[in-house]
Amino acid sequence: MNDSLAPSGDAVPTARSSSVRKWLAFLLIGGLVAAGTVWWMRTRDTAPDKKGTVRGELPPVPVVIGVVAQKDVPIYLDGLGTVQAFNTVTVRARVDGQVVKVAFTEGQDVQVGDELVKIDPAPYHATLEQATAKQGQDEALLANAKTDLKRYRDLLAKEGVTQQVFDTQQSLVNQLEAAVRADQATVESANVQLAYATIVSPINGRTGIRLVDQGNMVRATDATGLVVITQLKPISVVFTLPEQMLGKIQKQQLAAPELTVVAMGRDNAEVLGEGALAVIDNQIDSANIKLKATFPNTDLHLWPGQFVNARLLLTVRKAGAVVPASVVQRGPQGAFAFVIKEDQTVDVRAVKVAQNEQGEALIDDGLHPGERVVVDGQYKLQKGSRITPADSPAPGAGTGSAGRSPKAAATDAERGSRDSKKPKP
After folding, report:
1. What is the DSSP string of 282-336?
2. pLDDT (tens digit, 9 = 90+) per residue, 122-145?
3. Alpha carbon distances (Å) from 82 to 161, 236, 264, 304, 330
4. CA distance to 200, 201, 216, per residue, from 228 (Å)
5. Which of 267, 254, 213, 221 is nearest to 96 (CA)?
6. Which are the contacts of 152, defined by CB distance < 8 A and separation ≥ 6?
């Protein structure tokens, strides 16, 4: 074989080196193409579109925006209360007899001294007549005995009678005087019994349901009465508060002796009356302190036995920070609110709520008057989210009703309903 046709020892490494260089060039070109593609895609995604929204970023969340207000806020202590009549009397018979007259109407307003029930007075008239007659008899005997005593006194001076006779007559006069006094007491007792036959109202108030009818026999020992009278003007409300509030109430009483109490309906929507704190009970019962308030009750909105929500006005917080109650959200770490920053993003801020009253929350700490907060739409937010007012179209929203105002969406719906009713060709 010709040695000139065989490959030399240096030819093989040269061919292999050329092949490696081609592969390296190919990989380098492919890497540059891939890098360029990635850069181009990132540049496209971060470039703003015609509506100002950056591609690849979530659109702003439409929310309702509010401002932290500053105003005076009353601070109430709430407790469950029961309405009680200012005075309650169960009218009972004090003598035995038959009811001959019922002089009141159920539910009637009565005054002190108004006649309610009349018991047959005939037996008590007779007793009074007997006592009066006996008194007259004894008074006549006493007058005669006094005349004899005067005569015996004159005779005793002339020794016409003995001392024993005079002393006997003096004793008789003393006995008859005692008898006359006893007769007078009997007459007065008979008058009292006769007066008890006519039963009158002991207080100003309103009668309840009649408990006895005309013609029935009643006795002084009967357990049931004739009627119950309750005083409704004024009226009382007894309510309880936790014992921890006792110190605050006593401190406030030093500054303002008369504390206002408001009686609300069970739904806390209707004001039934406004009164004043009358007394704090002298002992704590089951970790609660009992209080009593008095109400004029001129409109009779409060009724004995009624359950109410009693609200004690403790003080008034001056220039407090107030927001709608929906601003305050609850989380694992407690209450918080979404605060809107200058760049239209939100921050999560912990807040301390003093009280919720009529849809407004009084903030003790965390918010300041004038700050913007999210009132509604928080369920889509997190810290750093961008927002837009809910009453304006959201950037990037479609042409449907989701990105439009409610009025425009309703107009489109109405137009579509009219078009659907047109006859088709």
Report:
1. EEEETTEEEEEEEE--TT----TT-EEEEEEEEEEEEEEEEEEGGG-EEETTEEE
2. 999 999 999 999 999 999 999 999
3. 82, 8, 11, 8, 33
4. 12, 10, 18
5. 221
6. 161, 165, 166, 169
Rounded Cα distance, 324 and 214, in Å: 63
Q: What is the pLDDT of residues 39-92, one digit of tens each?
A: 666 555 444 454 445 555 678 889 999 999 998 999 999 999 999 999 999 999
- Residues composing the chain: 425
d(CA 100, CA 122): 11
Distance CA 394, CA 63 (A): 10
| CA atoms within 13 Å, Cβ hemisphere of 244 | 1
| ω into 74 cis (within 30 of 0) | no
Amino acid at 257: P
Q: Which domains does the chain have, with CATH numbers?
A: 61-70+320-394 (2.40.420.20), 76-86+231-318 (2.40.30.170), 90-116+201-230 (2.40.50.100), 121-196 (1.10.287)
* Burial status of residue 222 (CB atoms within 10 A of its CB: 0-12, 13-18, 19 or more): middle
Mean pLDDT of 362-386: 89
What does the alpha-carbon distance between residue 149 and residue 153 come to, in Å, rounded to a whole number?
Answer: 6
The amino acid at residue 245 is M
Distance from C-alpha of 323 to C-alpha of 338, rounded to nearest angstrom: 12
Asked whether the predicted pLDDT for residue 305 surpasses 70, the reply is yes
Is 366 strand, coil or helix?
coil
The single-letter DSSP state of residue 378 is G
Average pLDDT over residues 224-231: 95
Amino acid code (one letter) for 249: I
The reported pTM is: 0.64
